[in-house]
Write a structure and sequence with these properties.
Blueprint (H helix, E strand, L loop, with lengths): L1 H8 L4 H14 L5 H17 L2 E6 L11 E4 L5 H9 L5 E5 L8 H8 L2 E3 L4 H16 L4 E2 L22 H6 L3 E7 L3 H4 L6 E7 L5 H4 L4 H19 L2
Length: about 240
């Protein structure tokens, strides 16, 4: 119901934005800035049209220098929209293979140079992690969901997969923990009533802080910070 509302509210713009996105994906391979700009417009229009209020905190914590990775908890497909709508810096995302052919999402992924990961294929997963690390070293930013799959228990955070932090370790880049609150509501509940979702950008962990930690320890620390933030900002 919410998705239908988003489309209806932007009905006249949908064909135009879709064509722009498609053309951008074709023309600017390797440069995710044009695609990110269009994705930001689409995300903001979708949030407005879906009768959703997005509250964002901690934008000052996003590193000024490019070459970092966002690590948020994962609540559903709406999560990415909050980042595209609010991030002051462009980024590419990593999503599960099963979602890469969803209409519009597919075009957004192509336009921003994002990657799909097959969680069942360890070799492919490690190749993606290595590719992310190399790209982050060159100044690209990424969004990775360390839970691997979305939580189906509201704002409860699942355990984080240590392997997802190998990309940051290899790139020696800042890790930006991010807390999502109530982002499961827009697409999981059969309602179009006004809803408020929150995204909090936490202070980064720089390489000097985690270089002597194992990936398991990094995952636990990032998760701890996010859980505490959800408890602080949650309703």
């Amino acid at each position: 119901m919410r998705i239908a509302l988003m489309v209806l509210a932007n009905l006249l713009l949908v064909p135009y934005l879709f064509i722009r996105l498609w053309l951008t994906a074709k023309r600017y391979r390797g440069d995710y800035n044009p695609g990110f700009r269009i994705a930001k417009v689409i995300a903001k229009r979708a949030i407005w049209g879906g009768n959703i209020k997005l509250e964002v905190y901690g934008e000052e914590n996003v590193p000024k220098e490019d070459g970092f990775i966002f690590y948020p908890n994962h609540q559903g497909l709406f999560d990415s929209l909050t980042f595209f709508a609010s991030s002051p810096k462009p980024f590419a995302a990593v999503i599960k293979k099963e979602a890469k052919d969803i209409i519009l999402l597919k075009q957004v992924l192509q336009a921003t140079g994002s990657l799909a990961m097959d969680r069942e294929d360890i070799r492919q997963s490690m190749q993606v992690i290595s590719q992310i690390a190399e790209e982050v070293k060159t100044g690209r930013n990424y969004l990775i969901f360390p839970e691997g799959t979305r939580s189906r228990e509201g704002n409860k955070v699942q355990e984080f997969k240590p392997g997802s932090f190998k990309a940051a370790q290899k790139a020696k880049c800042p890790i930006v923990p991010c807390a999502l609150i109530n982002c499961f509501i827009p697409f999981d509940r059969q309602s179009i009533r006004r809803v408020t979702v929150k995204l909090i950008y936490l202070k980064p962990l720089y390489y000097e802080e985690y270089k002597d930690m194992k990936t398991v320890e990094i995952a636990q620390e990032v998760r701890r910070r996010i859980v505490e933030t959800i408890a602080e900002y949650g309703d």
